[in-house]
Amino acid sequence: MKRQRHYLLAGALLMGMAANAATPAVPLSVPSLEQRGGQALPLQAYWYAAEAPGARPAVVLLHGCGGPYDGRGKLSVRMRDYSALLNQQGWHVLVLDSLGARGETELCTQRIGTRAVTMANRRLDVLGALSWLAQRGDVDTARLALLGWSNGGSTVLAATNLTHAEVAQASPRPRAAVAFYPGCEAELKRGYMAAAPLQLLVGAADDWTPAEPCAALAAAAKPQVQLHSYAAAYHGFDSSAPVKLRKDVPNGVHPGQGVHVGGNAAAREASRAQMLAFLKAQLQ
Q: Start and end of every Dienelactone hydrolase domain (predicted)?
């Protein structure tokens, strides 16, 4: 109970600090490594610059299957809150949109295996973003990180697995990677070899992207992967939205029966504190 109160207080403090540290997002275009007609596919992106001197670490934010926007077409609360929190640490933030350039607005209602935007596409997006960051004079290329949620968390795994040839050949590589409630089955089946220290943050009650494959991946991965699992936490536990059943999602542990999505206050604050501690240890 004392530890839970500690995380709740720490998380509230962190998010309060983040709100005060928010900087305006600068829209820009970032080239994916995917080629279309002999040209790099341009991705819509948003740059949150750290208000700190010199070359700074940078974190790439990778959205879930719903994309990076809210219902009004603005960057979601999650993207804005985490960007502000990371800015507070003196780190730049790059929010990447992998859907818009490919004519998609969401993937959640598309069955896995039929989705228009695949992990192969998103892996090329991440590698392109890392290359783009390496060309900026205000970025410390040796201190880059990836942070993703759900489908974006799966992208973190796909973009840091050295068994993929393009990942093994990529330069630069991230210094650290964090995945919130990713789908771990594909990379577990393939065999995961981490290109960077990895932290997995999963909900024990998640019936969309279950925790068990992630626990198995963490146990088998080389080098060691850090795993935190949160009791009674569903998919999207780091939000403040109430838990609801999404019947429009055809995937999940029980296909056709829908999936539960929503926040868990204890898991939200604990995961944010643990995420930040992990990134600090790797990027400072």
A: 44-281
Give 25-74 pLDDT, tens digit per residue. Answer: 999 999 999 999 999 999 999 999 999 999 999 999 999 999 999 999 99
CA–CA gap between residue 73 and residue 106 (Å, rounded): 12
* Nearest alpha-carbon partner for 269 in 1, 3, 2, 12: 12
Residue 197 belongs to domain spanning: 2-283
- Chain length of the chain: 284
- What does R_g of the chain's alpha carbons equal in angstroms? 17
What's the number of domains the chain is made of?
1
Distances, alpha carbon 160 to alpha carbons 187, 191, 201, 231, 255, in Å: 10, 12, 16, 27, 28
CATH number (domain holding residue 241): 3.40.50.1820
Q: What is the pTM of this model?
A: 0.92
